[in-house]
Design a protein that fits this description.
The chain is mainly beta. The protein is built from 2 helices and 5 strands; from the N terminus they run ααβββββ. The N and C termini lie far apart (about 35 Å).
Length: about 100
């Protein structure tokens, strides 16, 4: 299944990209209030692997995620479960005018 969504953020693309790829930092929890913790397990070039813990619907969810950071405008994210790939999210940052 393919789902597309978009959002306009009134900020320079490079600044938004830097915030979105600051894995393991407090800013990540401000972006997604359900995210309790994000621990960086691996940094290897453009690959970052994190252990994320969320609180959703009264439940604690722990999930490993791989992020491929492709500056200046793309993040590829995959949720993993015991080596299985569960979902893939591609985020692209486009500039619109001033």
């Amino acid at each position: 299944m393919l789902i597309e969504a978009s959002i306009v953020i009134d900020a320079p693309r490079d600044e938004v990209f830097a915030i979105m790829t600051d894995y393991g930092q407090e800013v990540r929890r401000r972006i997604n209030p359900e995210l309790e913790t994000q621990e960086v397990l691996l940094r290897d070039g453009n690959l970052i692997v994190c252990e994320n813990v969320w609180h959703r619907g009264g439940q604690k969810i722990r999930q490993r995620r791989e992020y491929r950071v492709l500056p200046p405008d793309t993040i590829e994210e995959e949720a993993l479960d015991n080596g299985r790939r569960l979902s893939r999210i591609v985020t692209r940052f486009e500039e619109f005018g001033d």
